[in-house]
Amino acid sequence: VIDGDTIEIENGERVRYLGIDTPETVDPRKPVQCFGVEASKKNKELVEGKNIRLEKDITDKDKYGRLLRYVWVDSLFVNLELVKQGFATSYTYPPDVKHQAEILAAEAEAREANRGLWGACPIVSARLDTK
């Protein structure tokens, strides 16, 4: 697990989770953001050492060469779970919108309940209010 929305798989490739964004913890150009450490820990808890299934949307890789995927552990949709629990926000980058509706719905529910970063990070909430 690299951070809250990026993992490295057995073959050495990095996978960036589609449809979500978590606060930064490893970007050398940015300070560690509110709830970033918690998001990384939750991602580790959900996927580390487990067999995962990767689901592709339209775009194969990002500009950094990372695979862009939805991540599953058995029937658990990890991308969605991180948003549901308030460890991630939705981040839609067309044309990769296959699971956009359910991710946006989970984000609205987490935000309304002040779950995770929604309750802990007022700056994130304010930033997203301006959309």
Q: What is the structure about, briefly put?
A:
With 131 residues, this protein is an alpha+beta fold. The chain contains 5 helices and 7 strands, in the order βββαβββαβααα. Strand 4 and strand 5 form a beta hairpin.
Q: Helices, strands, pairings?
A:
Blueprint: E1 6-8, E2 14-17, E3 19-21, H1 36-47, E4 53-61, E5 67-73, E6 76-77, H2 78-84, E7 89-91, H3 100-112, H4 117-120, H5 122-129
Parallel strand pairs: 2-5
Antiparallel strand pairs: 1-2, 3-7, 4-5, 5-6
Helix pairs in contact: 2-3
Please explain how this structure is put together.
This protein is α+β, with helices and mostly antiparallel strands and 131 residues long. The chain has one domain: OB fold (Dihydrolipoamide Acetyltransferase, E2P), CATH 2.40.50.90. The chain is globular, with a radius of gyration of 14 Å.
Could you name the key traits of this structure?
131 residues, alpha+beta, OB fold (Dihydrolipoamide Acetyltransferase, E2P), five-stranded mixed β-sheet, two-stranded antiparallel sheet, 7 strands, 34% helix, 24% strand, globular
- Helix and strand pattern: EEEHEEEHEHHH
Report the major sheet.
Answer: 5 strands, mixed
Helix content: 25-40%
Which fold name corresponds to the CATH topology? OB fold (Dihydrolipoamide Acetyltransferase, E2P)
Given helix and strand content, the structural type is alpha+beta
Residue-averaged pLDDT: 93
Overall 3D form: globular
State the CATH class: Mainly Beta
Unreliable runs: none
Tell me the strand percentage band: 15-25%
Could you tell me how far the N terminus lies from the C terminus, measured between alpha carbons in angstroms? Answer: 30 Å
Radius of gyration from CA coordinates: 14 Å
Number of strands: 7
Number of helical stretches of at least 4 residues:
5
